[in-house]
């Protein structure tokens, strides 16, 4: 692939035979926004709201949050911005909200925390919706969903916040509400979840960690964390099938989407949105533009029966090398 990929920013994200894929970005800081726009990002698939929370020494107020979210929404408008509700716990700790647990990855994380603290959740979604006034490009996404009940409870809260804002005189539409699929139990309920969510997005970092029982932040076991493990590929396929059967758009916002080989396989599976760090966007776009859909399908069919993650990795790497 060419070394200087700047020319790609304005070219469409499509395969050589015209199969379109949405290439979106993951953001957290305003600096990510600038880089993303320069690289021609078509939307934000994951805005990690915990980033501004991590940079402070106390919870930001609703008004402070509104200002931060407004900047993100405005910078990308009219392109969609997917704001994830607070995903703390696990590897993301707020100094001013300590969580002491022996097993944080299996503990109080993501939606579990905010459903137990509806005041945090409501303040956050109110700030997001207020920030979207006049822009209409907000999507709200829930992290760490492990069952239907959490989606139902969270939707009630979002609807309540929306109704309150309308009562207060804000003229805003109810934003699409989606979920992350990153807990194995959600894979097995993907069909039902997809029927009740407006979109679904795979968090392949956590999903891989939980499927393989390998701590994503523990270097001792990094050698057995395989994002192209056959079990992960099978889960990714089941999610897309279930999502599309329900008529719901399916994206992915884990690191796998930003890996050119991973992106080819995901595109072949039919993923509608690949959301990645802006740094990876040009590389991924170049790889997609260099293949046809049938060629990527063929690569996918070649690796799916393989039992060894290393064999899959080598096959994909060799394929990319041959492509140039
Ligand atoms: C993921 O788990 O894949 C993901 C995108 O979320 P995070 O990395 O923020 O946990
Ligand atoms: Mg995650």
TrEMBL record:
Transmembrane segments: none annotated. It is found in: Cytoplasm. Belongs to the PEP-utilizing enzyme family. This is phosphoenolpyruvate--protein phosphotransferase. The chain holds residues 420 to 743 of 751 of the full protein.
